[in-house]
Amino acid sequence: MQEFDLFVIGAGSGGVRCARIAAQNGAKVGIVERRHWGGTCVNIGCVPKKLMVYAAEAGRAIHDAPAYGWNVTEQGHDWSRFMVAKNKEIERLNGVYVSLLKRSGVELFTGDARLVDGQTISITPSVLEPDAEPQTIKAKKIVLAAGSTPVRLDFPGAEHALVSDDLFALPERPNRIAIIGSGYIGLEFASIFAGLGSDVDLVYRQPLPLKGFDQDLRERMRTLIDLRGINQHHDVTPLKIEKTADGLELSLSSGNVLNVDAVLMATGRRPAIDGLGLDAAGVHTEKGSVTVNEQFATSVPSIYAIGDIINRYNLTPTAIAEGHMLAEELFNPQGRDWSFETTPKAVFFSPPLASVGLSEEEARESHDLEIYTAEFTPMGQTLPQRSGKCFMKLVVDGRSGVMLGAHMIGPDAPEIIQIMAVAVTAGLTKAELDRTVSLHPTLAEEFVTMRLPDRKVSRARAHS
Ligand SMILES: Cc1cc2nc3c(=O)[nH]c(=O)nc-3n(C[C@H](O)[C@H](O)[C@H](O)COP(=O)(O)OP(=O)(O)OC[C@H]3O[C@@H](n4cnc5c(N)ncnc54)[C@H](O)[C@@H]3O)c2cc1C
């Protein structure tokens, strides 16, 4: 039986980083993966999704081109051709992940892993290598990095709906698609399919999309969803899905019935704890997530957990940072940390939205605020006469001038907010933005040219 200093279950964003850093610091490390090297992000998440966003954006560029003098004829999107190119790139990345692990000295296993006890793991063959031999592994320390899976709502006919995992292997693009859920995944796919030429219905429970984001952004996003040509059904729940001769019928609580080719359930994700043997090993969970302390230790001293399985931030960079921190903490403590509370977030809609730090609603719980905003038509939209305003917002502590949050909807918002995240993480003040000379003509320069506050907001009171 093989024995390791550290054994990682799940070769996704967090697991791969944790295994590599531990091995680079001298530990004997093994990692097991059951489905795809690189995990959700590389195979059925961030990367293929962003390639789809680029595909949809290319259509927008073709559409706008005549306004800039180009003679073009748009002949529609070839889904199969795109999927071949996308799959080739993902295969390349799978190979990159495997070689990164091997070059770091990590031993790779394929299969379905299950805890037998606090230091023993059994591995049975999985889709990745069905003919592999079952194995039992011993490890001084084990890291659970098994990620998360999509949540399906429970209502009649729900089994006919797709989840995001399915979209990356669809043989054809649905011409009519209903998307349930207005979180970032729902909005991104609504925008992608609309951009590729599908009729899209977006169904959600709240009055506004993107629960948890700044209210000003949510209100503007509702308008931008209309401008993207997506039919919104807000304050509505799905009741049932029935198969019909030419597709599916989705009945809504509003009384509307949508006739579509596909329904996507983008209704959240939950930690992938099923079948991991947590009970056998005595690992505690709470509300379906593995419970850990600040050092990512579970209730069992030899077992740790990172990434989506602990349900904290549920993003790739945070899973990577957690894996890195844990590996160093175990094998070569550096005292390194990351500012998780200023983790930036993006929604790759067209146009995209991005945020860092506190929303106005969160900040006013404990601060008097100055709110700075800018709203304007981006220059790139003037010749094509494209509607939709760019919106930028700074949430500033009224006493110290420290920037608590920066928010934006508009072209390149994720790229701009990534850099604003440095300023918010560093605790810079608005005065330091004022000292910064702008780079012209850009959208980003609006963040350094906001002169007067739009409004002042007293602690825990509504907009004044
Ligand atoms: C559609 C979509 C879009 C996304 N877009 C973004 C984005 O734009 N930006 C962003 O930051 N994040 C995005 N995310 C989230 C991001 O993908 C996850 O937060 C991240 O992948 C979590 O990393 P992880 O290491 O916790 O788990 P994962 O990357 O999910 O890896 C877990 C791995 O463990 C394996 N595994 C599970 N159980 C076992 C077992 N018993 N035995 C062996 N192997 C097992 C799984 O097969 C998987 O490969 C997106 C997610 C989705 C679904």
Task: Give a topology summary.
Layout: E1 2-9, H1 13-24, E2 29-33, H2 39-44, H3 46-64, H4 79-103, E3 107-110, E4 112-117, E5 120-124, E6 135-144, E7 148-150, H5 164-167, E8 176-180, H6 184-196, E9 199-203, H7 215-227, E10 231-233, E11 238-244, E12 247-252, E13 257-260, E14 262-265, E15 269-271, H8 278-281, E16 285-286, E17 289-290, E18 303-305, H9 316-331, E19 345-347, E20 353-357, H10 360-363, E21 369-376, E22 390-397, E23 403-409, H11 413-425, H12 430-435, E24 455-457
Parallel strand pairs: 1-2, 1-6, 2-3, 6-18, 8-9, 8-14, 9-10
Antiparallel strand pairs: 4-5, 5-6, 7-15, 11-12, 12-13, 16-17, 19-20, 20-23, 21-22, 21-24, 22-23
Helix pairs in contact: 1-9, 3-4, 3-6
Flavin-adenine dinucleotide binds at residues 9-15, 32-36, 39-41, 45-46, 49, 112-113, 145-147, 164, 185, 272, 275-276, 307-309, 314-317, 319.
Describe the structure.
29% of the residues lie in helices and 26% in strands. It is of the alpha/beta class. Strands 1, 2, 3, 4, 5, 6 and 18 form a 7-stranded mixed beta sheet that branches. The protein has a 6-stranded antiparallel beta sheet with strand order 19-20-23-22-21-24, sandwiched between helices. Strands 10-9-8-14 form a 4-stranded parallel beta sheet, with helices on one face. A hairpin with a 5-residue loop joins β19 (345-347) and β20 (353-357). α1 packs parallel to α9 (316-331), α3 packs antiparallel against α4 and α3 packs across α6 (184-196). The longest helix has 25 residues, at 79-103. The chain is globular. The relative contact order is 0.13. Bound molecules: flavin-adenine dinucleotide (FAD). Flavin-adenine dinucleotide (FAD) binds next to α1, β2, α2, α3 and β4. Flavin-adenine dinucleotide is lined by residues 9-15, 32-36, 39-41, 45-46, 49, 112-113, 145-147, 164, 185, 272, 275-276, 307-309, 314-317, 319.
